[in-house]
Design goal:
The chain is mainly α. Helix content is 64%, strand content 0%. It has seven helices and no strands. The protein has helices at 3-13, 19-36, 39-47, 51-58, 68-79, 83-100, 105-111. Helix 1 (3-13) crosses helix 2. The longest helix is centred in the N-terminal third of the chain and has 18 residues, at 19-36.
Length: 129
Amino acid sequence: MQHDEFIGQVQNRARLASRGAAEAAARATLETLGERLDVGLAENVASQLPPEIGRHLLETRPFERISIAEFFDRVSLREGVDRPQAVFHARAVLEVLEIATQGVMDKVLQSLPEEFMPLFAGSAGQMPG
């Protein structure tokens, strides 16, 4: 998947008014996810993305075992939106990430606690708010 397609899909799924807003949502979500993944896995996921997008997974360190609530708080702060918007945008970004990196998403899902599963498109359940 190319950069423009990734951002376009985020913009569409998150119902954002501009590509800039979609870029901000993708950056905030992927930087925060990058904090939750070990370095090797983050590098593996990033390698399957366009460089402009994959780098967001690698820009924050070190690995932290953050909760889903902390994940959303960090996305909200980074993106500059309220928490309900951050939850919605993060889910959209991660849905596109699943499509773009199908080969490694099983490893990502295995590395995350159960409370993160509703974030991903293939998971059932309600989004925590």
